[in-house]
């Protein structure tokens, strides 16, 4: 029983999870999603009303519980939630809380999974829907479809384990919230201040950094970092890169002229034993602007040490003292910053990076410098506004010109005097 707006801290979360560790079953399944919020469940229930489209018992119980909280809570606007800082370290906490064998479930067919039920097990299932490679606006449109797709995955895994007679407990959470919650301490502030508070969006996890000695020479951050090989194999690298940091960056190189960020992954998915992604950056002096600029020249993908894919990069540059930021970077023609395949192997890869921020030179105080965004000043919305303003000004000028051309009669008829006669010669 938690009051509305209460945010469960990491310490409170450990207390709430203690019964899971002290009672049977000792097998634990952690369904870890990329983004998730309570509003996602309430949105789903409001969309379908009494017709619940979810099929597995986990999500059904969650929605029923939320409906009970909504009915009993004095305020249905703000519900209790778990702090994303607490869920970020949930995996390491579960590993330390008991002698559990950690198993990462990448193959959704758990019937082939070998489990020693005599010892406690911890199964970690990364819920990565295949439509997460879409742009952010398209993802919001397909939000309901994504949720139903994840519901089928959870139902299939739990049913397979039940058929095998394996007893388990389930934890369903996410690395970060899907939206920024409204802060209750500013509810009575001015509307302008409230809107500014709602739009606050800090980094949900620290950026990846490469150090030389005691100094950081490369900073790299992305909200979503995913690849797709041969239009079939989806690889999500956001969690292993920034959350668990299960990535090898020892091959990265730093200098005042050339910088290479090397990300090596071991068995990111079934069928790929090793994967290396390189970001090659240069720092050059340009006479036209009389200053140094840092540019991301190319991106290279090496699969299993043999298959080499190279992409040329367009429109990723910034002053050498700044970092670079872009909302969408990838191989699609719709993205502001594109990765253009330069060899045949690169045509087999699709790359999607959202909220990219990277800096390879002149890092001060071990943090990103001022960001130079890929979106120029004259965006399509600004051009539309300018064109519309010009058309309206032209209409106004034409109207004023027509009014100025109006003339009045030189003579007027006086009703009290004689009738005014105008000769036809006039």
Oligomer description = single chain
> Distance between termini?
96 Å
Q: β content, as a range?
A: 25-35%
Low-confidence stretches: 130-139, 181-203
The helix content, as a percent range, equals 25-40%
Order of helices and strands: EHHEHHEHHEEHHEHEEEEHEEEEEEEEEH
The geometry reads as extended
Rg result? 30 Å
Number of domains: 2
Structural class: alpha/beta
CATH topology heading of the largest domain: Porin
At the first level of CATH, the class of the largest domain is Mainly Beta
Number of helices: 11
User: Largest beta sheet, briefly?
Assistant: 13 strands, mixed
Transmembrane segments: 381-401
Family: Belongs to the vacuolar ATPase subunit S1 family.
GO cellular component, one term: cytoplasmic vesicle membrane
Domain V-type proton ATPase subunit S1 luminal: 215-361
What can you see in these coordinates?
The protein has helices spanning 10-16, 18-22, 38-48, 57-72, 84-88, 90-97, 136-141, 143-163, 191-198, 238-243, 380-404; strands at 7-8, 28-35, 81-82, 101-105, 121-127, 169-176, 208-212, 215-221, 224-229, 233-236, 258-269, 272-286, 291-303, 307-314, 317-319, 323-330, 337-341, 349-359, 371-373. Strands 7, 8, 9, 10, 11, 12, 13, 14, 15, 16, 17, 18 and 19 form a 13-stranded mixed sheet that branches. A 4-stranded parallel sheet has the order 4-5-2-6, sandwiched between helices. The protein is extended. The protein is of the alpha/beta class.
Name its key features.
426 residues; alpha/beta; Porin; 2 domains; 13-stranded mixed β-sheet; four-stranded parallel β-sheet; 11 helices; 28% helix; 31% strand; VAS1 ATPase; transmembrane helix; membrane; transmembrane
């Amino acid at each position: 029983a938690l009051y509305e707006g209460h945010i469960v801290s990491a310490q409170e979360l450990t207390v709430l999870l203690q019964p899971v560790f002290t009672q049977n079953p000792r097998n634990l399944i952690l369904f870890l999603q990329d983004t998730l919020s309570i509003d996602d469940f309430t949105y789903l229930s409001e969309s379908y009303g009494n017709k619940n489209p979810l099929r597995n018992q986990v999500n059904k119980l969650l929605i029923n519980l939320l409906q009970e909280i909504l009915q009993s809570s004095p305020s249905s606007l703000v519900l209790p939630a778990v702090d994303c800082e607490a869920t970020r370290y949930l995996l390491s906490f579960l590993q330390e809380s008991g002698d559990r064998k950690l198993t990462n479930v990448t193959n959704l067919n758990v019937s082939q999974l070998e489990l020693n039920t005599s010892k406690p097990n911890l199964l970690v299932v990364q819920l990565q829907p295949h439509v997460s490679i879409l742009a952010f606006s398209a993802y919001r449109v397909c939000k309901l479809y994504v949720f139903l797709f994840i519901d089928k995955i959870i139902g299939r895994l739990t049913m397979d384990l039940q058929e095998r007679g394996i007893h388990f407990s389930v934890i369903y959470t996410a690395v970060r919230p899907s939206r920024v919650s409204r802060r209750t301490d500013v509810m009575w502030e001015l509307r302008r201040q409230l809107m500014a508070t709602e739009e606050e969006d800090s980094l949900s996890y620290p950026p990846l950094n490469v150090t030389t000695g005691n100094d950081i020479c490369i900073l790299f951050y992305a909200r979503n970092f995913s690849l797709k090989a041969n239009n079939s194999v989806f690889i999500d690298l956001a969690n292993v890169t920034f959350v668990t940091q299960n990535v090898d960056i020892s091959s990265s190189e730093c200098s005042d002229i050339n910088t290479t960020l090397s990300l090596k992954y071991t068995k990111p998915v079934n069928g790929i034993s090793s994967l290396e992604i390189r970001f090659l950056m240069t720092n050059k002096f340009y006479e036209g602007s009389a200053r140094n600029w840092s540019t991301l020249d190319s991106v290279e993908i090496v699969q299993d040490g043999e298959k080499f894919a190279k992409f040329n990069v367009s429109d990723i540059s910034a002053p050498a003292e700044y970092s670079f930021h872009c909302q969408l970077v990838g191989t699609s023609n719709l993205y502001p910053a594109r990765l253009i395949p330069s060899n045949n192997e690169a045509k087999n890869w699709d790359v999607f990076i959202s909220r990219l921020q990277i800096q390879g030179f002149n890092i001060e105080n071990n943090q990103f410098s001022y960001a130079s965004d890929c979106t120029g000043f004259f965006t399509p919305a600004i051009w539309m506004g300018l064109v519309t303003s010009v058309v309206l000004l032209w209409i106004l000028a034409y109207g004023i010109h027509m009014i100025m051309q109006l003339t009045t009669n030189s003579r007027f008829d006086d009703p009290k005097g004689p009738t005014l006669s105008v000769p036809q010669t006039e």
